[in-house]
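Protein modeling request. Please complete all fields; requests missing the sequence field cannot be processed.
Requester role: graduate student
Desired output: 3D structure, token encoding
Chains: 1
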Amino acid sequence: MSIPATYSEEQLVLALKNRDRQAFGYLYDHYSAALYTIIRQILRDPDRSDDVLQEVFTNIWRKIETYDPEKGRIFTWMLNIARNASIDTLRSKDFRQARQNQELSETVDFRMESRAVQPNFDHIGLRKALEGLRPEYREVIELAYYKGYTHEEIADSAKIPLGTVKTRIRSALIQLRAHLRQT
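Delivered output (183 residues):
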């Protein structure tokens, strides 16, 4: 049996559900950088980001049976796992205490370093899709998915009602899904 150099999304999912380790290696090689960028952008801590990335891929391996292609693409599913794991870590008591106990020089260097990290989603077209959204939609998506804000935090930050935040996020996701299906 020959080993495919690339997989279609359907082939990859089927191989993962059959517990094919080579398919998992392929998945890691092709998606880890994008997932790490999201994790790093939320946590702003390289060491913790490495740990969360490992946790994310462990969860992907364990939970691949729960992936439903009818609900979206595999990358979107993995992105949600990464985002949720990052937010859980961000809100954990240990993480908050560790950040409070950082030396001032670490904090200053860390903030300067975090400005240099720019996500590169050009290969999947996500940045272009986001640019196509109305500004108020783009704002709530960036706060929710890239910065890890809760809906309540977005409402406070943008000074808009909570219901408006939820409506904008839902509308933006519908538009993004439509755009990504066309590409």
